[in-house]
Write a structure and sequence with these properties.
The complex is a heterodimer. Chain A is α/β, with parallel strands linked by helices. Chain A has a single domain, classed as OB fold (Dihydrolipoamide Acetyltransferase, E2P) (Beta Barrel), CATH 2.40.50. Chain A has two helices and six strands, in the order αβαβββββ. In chain A, strand 2 and strand 3 form a beta hairpin. The longest helix of chain A has 13 residues. By secondary structure, chain B is mostly helical. Helices cover 81% and strands 0% of the residues of chain B. In chain B, helix 2 runs antiparallel to helix 10 and helix 2 crosses helix 11. Chain B starts with a helix and ends with a helix. The model of chain B has no long low-confidence stretch (mean pLDDT 84). The chains are: A alpha/beta, B mainly alpha. Chains A and B meet through helix 2 of A and helix 2, helix 6 and helix 12 of B.
Amino acid sequence: MPNNRVVNKTKTVTDVMEEQTTVAPEATPAEEVIVDTAPAEMRYDTVDIDLTQSSETMLYSEVIDMGTSPDNYVGKIIKVHGQYMFFHDEMSENSYPTVVVLDATKCCATGLVFELEGDAGYPQEDQEFTVTGALDYPSSEDCPFPILKNAVITTE
Amino acid sequence: MDKLAEYLQYPFVRYALIVGVLIALCSSLLGVPLVLKRFSFIGDGLSHVAFGAMCIATVLKLSNNMLLIMPVTIIGAVLILRTGTNTKIKGDAIIAMISVAALAFGYLIMNFSNTPNLAGDVCTTLFGSTSILTLSRADVWLCIIMSVLVLVIFVLFYHRIFAVTFDENFARATGMDTEKYNLLIAIITAVIIVLAMNLVGSLLISALIIFPAISAMRLFHNYFKVTVFSAIFAVICAFSGIIISILAGTPVGSTIVGVNVLAFAVCWSIGKLRGTAA
C-alpha cells in the first residue's frame, strides 16, 4: 500500500457498497472520506484507454460508446477524470459510485460506475478525481451499467 | 496528427464524419433553391416543428422517435407551404407562428416527462451537443439511405427544381405542376431537417442550408456553378468543423456553424475583390 494514502476509517469494499446502496450520498460525512492519492499508474502498469488525454467532446462520446459497444472495451484498462457522484438508478433502485463526465456544452452528462479495489474510500460529492479500472459489463440486474472493476482513484 | 489518427480509429468518429458530410451535402443542395425562393427560414420553422415532435416522442417514451418526428415534420412542411400560399396569413408569418408555437409547446410537453436530465435533453435537441458522435450503426444506415434518396431526387428533378426556383409563374404557364414540385422541395427539406438535428441541433440547422448557398452566390452567378460550389463548401465546412470540435473539445454543432460563418466571410471578401459580390 502506498505511503501517501490517507485513511481515516477502514472499511471493506463490500461494506462501503452496502452502506451506500441504502444511505443517501449526502449522509456520508466528509471526515469519513478516504482519499487515495496514489497515482493510478502505480497499480496499473499500462492503461489501454487514457481518457484524461482526450478532448471534452471525445471524452463524452467515448464514455457513451462504452455503453453501446461493449465488445470494443470489455476487459480494457480505462483511466478517466471527472466528478464524483453517488448515482441513484430509479430502475434498479440501487445507487452506484460514479465518475461523471460532461460534454463540451456542459449541459449533458454521462458517467461510469466504478468499484474500488481494496479498502479505499470515495471522494466527496462533486469532487474532481481520476479513476482507473478494468471495464466489465455485469449482466446482473443489480448493476445494468458498464463498471470499472478493481478501480483505484486519485484526487488532486 | 497522431491524436487525430487515434480518434479516427473509433467507429463513432468515422460515423460522425460520414453522416456529417452527407447531411451537409444534402442541405447545401436544397439550400440554393430555398434561398432563391426566399424560403431560407423554412428550415428554421421545420426544425422547431421537429423539436416539438421529438418532445412528444420523449414523453411517450417511443423506442424509435424517428417514426413520429419524420411524419410530423413532413406534415409541418406541407402545412407551411399550403397555408402560406392559400390564406391571408402569408409564408413568413406562418413559418414564424408554427416555429415558435412548436418550440414553446415542445418545451412545455417535455416538462411533463420524468426525464432525469431535462435540461440536457433540451440542450442536445436544440444545439446538437455531441449527438452526432453517439450515433448507432442503424442511425448511420438510415442517414445514408435518406441522403442517397434525397440526392437521387435532386439529380432527377434538377431541371424542374431549377425552373420552379427561378420563375415559378413562367414554369406554371408552360404547364408544369409547380405546386407538386414546391411540395417535393418542402418534403425533402423536412427529411433533411430531421436528419440534421443530430448534426447541429434544431436551432442551428438553418446555417447548413443558408451559408453554403449565399457563399457560393458571392462568387458565382450561374445556377449550376452555385450548386456545385455550395456542395463543396458545405462538405469541407462540415468535415473540418467535426475534426476541429473533436480535437479542440468544442461543441460540434456550433463549431460547424462557426466554420461556415468564417468560410462565408472569406467568400464574401473574395467576391468583393473580384467584384462579383453584391
